[in-house]
């Protein structure tokens, strides 16, 4: 069933697929904080467009499967099943991995309960590459792959297979942790060092909220103030998930005002996030950094920030090394992220909103 509140990113999907199909690139990594619509983009835009373009499509979320007993094994099994599936019939195949089963064309295949010998990942990719159709691997939240214990051999095998067969097997990674992605792609010892072209996943703008206002009008016969709706979207740090929830509330209860719906959702999400406890566990320097970044400061190492920090902390000076140490801690905790342009940002839209509303 089509999601009426989903705003398609058709042009972005076409551009990425065009580059992959033409051979300009064999792999992309899309980065954005969580709750910004990356997964929906893969499943709603990329997968069906790739299928129409003649690709076999494999999707796997390392975030959804990180709490399974052996996520590396689960990925290995899922990839193996996909390889077997695409060779057993004609036509393009799309394959999704989930918690306890793999679904192929709506038919659930239960996850194997007994360990069985399956080929190495590089051999499986060779099998996939031998199909008449090219294949696109959609590997969601790829930073979690680097955090799986004792998975180094499987990761190296994956890299080998993708390197050898990059003309037939394309890859689209997503990630929400700069620290985790760096461990995967940027460090010289990283398993996928310089393998993928990194891109910031673009945020949606006014066109998205105008689209949502149109859906609301179709469903209720009433108009929303488009300017106010966009302001709420900005308040939620342009997270599609949260503004969609507000629209859902308004459609279910048209008597509810936009302001009331937004405030209720904001309060609920901040309560679920347990931000006060998280905030109190941080050092004074970490708090100052998050507060500064939340309010738009993109240069925390600069003299201006260090002077303000020294004044706030009641010390004579704050060294750049002290700021750098706090930045590293925030990156490791996944509270702060750094995009491909070197700009720092808060990794959670809700945490950013909470900081701006509750911290003076």
UniProtKB/TrEMBL annotation:
A GO MF annotation of the entry reads: transferase activity
Keyword flag Transferase:
yes
Q: What is its EC number?
A: 2.5.1.-
Source organism superkingdom: Bacteria
Q: Which InterPro entries match?
A: P-loop_NTPase
Task: List the keywords (alphabetical).
Answer: Transferase
Full protein name: Protoheme IX farnesyltransferase
Q: Which organism is it from?
A: Kingella denitrificans ATCC 33394
Q: What is the lineage of its organism?
A: Bacteria, Pseudomonadati, Pseudomonadota, Betaproteobacteria, Neisseriales
């Amino acid at each position: 069933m089509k999601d009426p509140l989903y705003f398609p990113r058709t042009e972005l999907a076409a551009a990425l697929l065009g580059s992959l199909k033409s051979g300009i690139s064999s792999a992309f990594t899309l980065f954005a904080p969580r709750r910004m619509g990356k997964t929906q983009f893969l499943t709603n835009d990329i997968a069906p467009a790739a299928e129409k373009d003649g690709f076999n499509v494999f999707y796997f979320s390392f975030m959804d499967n990180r709490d399974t007993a052996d996520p590396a094994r689960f990925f290995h099994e899922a990839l193996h099943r996909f390889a077997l599936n695409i060779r057993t019939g004609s036509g393009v195949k799309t394959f999704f991995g989930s918690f306890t089963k793999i679904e192929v064309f709506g038919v659930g295949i239960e996850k194997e309960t007994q360990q069985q010998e399956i080929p190495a990942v590089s051999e499986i990719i060779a099998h996939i590459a031998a199909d008449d159709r090219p294949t696109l691997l959609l590997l969601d939240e790829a930073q979690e792959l680097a955090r799986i214990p004792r998975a180094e051999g499987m990761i190296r095998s994956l890299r080998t297979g993708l390197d050898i067969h990059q003309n037939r097997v394309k890859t689209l990674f997503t990630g929400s942790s700069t620290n985790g992605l760096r461990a995967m792609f940027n460090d010289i010892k990283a398993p996928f060092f310089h393998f993928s072209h990194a891109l910031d996943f673009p945020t949606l703008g006014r066109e998205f909220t105008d689209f949502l206002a149109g859906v609301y009008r179709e469903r209720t016969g009433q108009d929303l103030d488009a300017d106010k709706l966009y302001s709420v979207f900005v308040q939620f740090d342009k997270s599609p998930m949260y503004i969609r929830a507000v629209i859902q509330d308004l459609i279910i209860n048209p008597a509810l005002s936009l302001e009331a719906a937004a405030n209720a959702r904001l309060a609920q999400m901040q309560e679920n996030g347990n931000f006060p406890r998280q905030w109190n566990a941080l050092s004074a320097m970490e708090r100052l950094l998050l507060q500064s970044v939340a309010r738009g400061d993109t240069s925390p190492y600069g003299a201006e920030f260090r002077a303000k920090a020294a004044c706030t902390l009641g010390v004579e000076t704050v060294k750049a090394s002290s700021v750098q140490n706090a930045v590293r801690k925030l990156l490791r905790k996944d509270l702060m992220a750094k995009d491909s342009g070197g700009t720092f940002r808060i990794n959670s839209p809700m945490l950013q909103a909470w900081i701006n509303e509750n911290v003076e």
